[in-house]
Amino acid sequence: MSDLEDLYREVILDHYRAPRNRGELPVPPAHKVEGFNPLCGDEVVLYLDVDGDTVTDLRTAGQGCSISQASTSMMSAAVKGKSVEEARRLIRAFKSLMSIHETQLEGGDPDGAEAEELQGVRLGDLAALQGVVKFPVRIKCATLGWNTLQQGLDEATQG
Amino acid sequence: MEHHANIVPWQILAAERGVELRFIPVTPGYELDLSTLEQLLDGARLLAFTAVSNVLGTINDVRALVDAAHAAGALALVDAAQAVPHLEIDVAAWDADFVAWTGHKMLGPTGIGGLWARPEILDAMPPFLGGGEMIRDVTTSGFSTNDVPWKFEAGTPPIAEAIGLGAAVDYLRALGLDAVRAHEQALTAYALDALAERFGERLTIYGPSDLDRRGGVISFLFEGIHAHDISQVVDEAGVCVRAGHHCAKPLMRVLGVPATTRASFYVYNDEADVDALVEALVRAEQFFGI
Asked: B177-281 belongs to which homologous superfamily?
């Protein structure tokens, strides 16, 4: 598999071409949060319905490269209907996945703090984004939606 | 149309001194819109503009802009970072008051560049850094400054960079800037034709179509594929392009795009490079399945 195919796995391209949970939710009750990547102009907008401790619904808007938009789409599918706590665990696990050095990708399990965060978390399709770490400049694309979600959950559960 | 380097310093000055900044609009044909220039220059102290746009390739009529500035009683500063490496320029014929350029855009080292200004302006300007070669004499009660240009060359100069820049100047002079320009123009014509023929309206080019009014940078947007994805795929094919806002975010807003991909030509490129770019774009198109 070439590096390029490793970066753009079929499941990623699928989410890019047909993003899940695209749209808006009425605000309020939904909470709206925006994330920007000032260096490349990518933008992610999330609408979160948080009921008690559950992410009951979410929609995504914004525009950007295939990695940022696919990652956001995959994120939306992964956290919809989950508890806030599970969503936070996924955020930590995904960020850990993005911070694993590429030398650890081939053979051998990640160790240290990354391994701890990944322990017992089912990443499913999200694991396809692991190839991004071979392209350090694209990591910020992959994490944009997740950082935005984290901000949104913080804001939604505060108030 | 400006690079951030010709915007942000003035915004810093505006915050410090309360200077008012005005911007010349860009026409749909990717040129400076001079229809309101007279009003914009009313009361202005300085007109600072790029000779060649690093995004659009637009070559501005420097002399006309300098004349307009002078007619309004303003000084004129030319950002020549994209002109010096690519065009035969004549500072005297421009009649500008300041001309700035940089070494790393003309095959020279990073961290060095040039600022030319009229001698009387330089004589009147205070030094901006103290120490080293900028002094004539120092006592415990004060200092006097050296002559221009040493007045502005405080500290230990970037010696290796200056020698490297000198070598770059000699090299470009030996090639001849007219020959450099002719080479780039031919490649730009070839590339514009090849891109239009292969991709038609799926590829939008941001810049003048008149080859005499543009330099050798081609900024484009590919329908349905983000600039960063384009650059990633063509990079894999060995073609190096720039993706992003090109340090010109206000211009990106005018164009209504978040980012573009930019191919640029210089003395080391040839038609085979353009062919490689076109092939790589075909691959990108297939890859993203549009």
From this structure: Aspartate Aminotransferase, domain 1 (3.90.1150.10)
